[in-house]
Amino acid sequence: MASTESRFARMSRRAAITGAALATMALAACNGGAKGAAEGDMAMGAPEGAKVTVVEYASVTCPHCALWQKNTWPGFKAKYVDTNKVRYVFRELPTPPIDAATAGFLVARCAGDDKYFDVVHQLMATQQEMITTSPRDWLLRTAQAAGLSEDQFNQCITDKDAIAAMDQRIQAARAQGVTGTPAFYVNGTQVITPGGEGASLADLSTAIDAELNK
To answer: Where is the Thioredoxin-like fold domain positioned along the sequence (predicted)?
Structure first.
């Protein structure tokens, strides 16, 4: 167990250093972003090439992301994703605590494509457990609920290739000018609703319907 904890700590430090560096680096190619497909995209709804693509940048440790997930996602999913009116793309952008967020996304990917969103949504719904227990216990419980053993969990969160791929996804988000979560883009144009919880269903609907009607 000690060696596993040590590996997790090393991964955590690496993720934290990466996050700090990316947060302060100059933003290049800032285009207001989220246009087209990107490496590592996870998606639901309409297939690639759909008339409307909605991209969300979020973190499993972001309280505002969790509120959007709880309050807005069900209505958005029913109206646009389940009906295949839009392609919904989720992109990972870990927020503090960076180590826990990074590990959470690694676990979601290790669980498999068919369980990815289940894991992400479960982590958001149970964020408080990260505080009341420990980040590792919170993540391990979620991993085990998704069918991963503790050994698989330990291997997952210390996978160098997976961590490197995560770094690349973070860099891509930063290069597009995404600096906070949750952030929403409809066909490359950001939709912002004042208040901090994320884009409202009403504002998303206005942007989406305008694109659908073109």
So the answer is: 39-209
